[in-house]
Amino acid sequence: MLTMLLGGLWHGAAWRFVVWGGLHGLWLALERGITESRRARGLTPVPDTVWLRSLKRLGTFHLVCLAWVFFRADSLTGAFRVLGRVFTGWGAATTLVTPAVLVAVGVGLAAQYVPRSAVNHGLIGFSRLRPAVQGLVLAFTLMVIDALGPEGVAAFIYFQF
Question: What predicted TM-score, i.e. pTM, was given to this entire model?
Fold first, then answer.
């Protein structure tokens, strides 16, 4: 918990970063506490099923997204305003969520479930391509990444620390 709180402070000397680090520390402490409590009581570990793993991943994703609201907000008040709008701010659609962004998110999520053997097979196949073809594939990949990214140069977030 202390490490995560210090990690939050390292990102910036503001309460929103402390909350961000504290939330991550809380999730880790709860997970560790539950596991250790079961072990101390002599209970067997919870069976690792695909459903439990999926539930844990879904929960982790949402908890991390919740914490990112505090990291990205301008202040604690702003973070709570954003969280309040999650429940009350339904209305016009945003222009930030485009079909290309949804496809990129879907591809990113699906890529997490590609078997390692398929990844290794793909890497071997890529390594067998001629260098010029490899360069074209990599250049195209960088163009797609650039097209999906924001315009301009992002501000260096640690310059005030």
Answer: 0.67
